[in-house]
Amino acid sequence: MSSNLLPVSPMATETVRDSTVPNHDETELTEFQKNQKRYQDLISTLPHVKGWRPKSPLIWYGGHWWIQSFLEGSLYAQEFFQARPNDFLICSYPKTGSTWLKSLTFTIAHRSRFNDLASTIPQTLSSNVTLTSLFLSLSSH
């Protein structure tokens, strides 16, 4: 064997580790953080007033008063949500009751299957819940 051979560098034989290559989740997180920063910069330019919660001022945007975390989420949804023709979106705040929301979702999804929907809804639901109209309005004006 020849002694002219250079020693092999440990770096040359080292395998690529997970920490050296950014994974898809890290890239998404970085994009999310960039968007969140952009939304926060926009929100800082909007009118603020003291709200009912000490650390959560109300922010005027699109003709409505918002709490910052809700506004950030709404801006993100407005920018990235792509609805399909058969989609419907039903939202509620956590711990506001999921039973009626599930019933409402079922009713909307299956309303064309029943002639008289009131007769197919359990009496406990139909006698205790009256739904006249429900709207979710997000404006980008």
From TrEMBL:
Domain Sulfotransferase: residue ranges: 85-117
EC number: 2.8.2.-
Disordered as annotated region, ranges: 1-25
UniProt keywords, alphabetically: Transferase
Signal sequence region: none
InterPro entries: P-loop_NTPase (IPR027417), Sulfotransferase_dom (IPR000863)
Pfam families registered for this protein in UniProt: Sulfotransfer_1
Record GO terms (molecular function): sulfotransferase activity
Top-level EC class as recorded in UniProt: transferase
Keyword hit for Transferase: yes
Protein family per UniProt: Belongs to the sulfotransferase 1 family.
Protein known as: Sulfotransferase
Species for this entry: Brassica oleracea var. oleracea
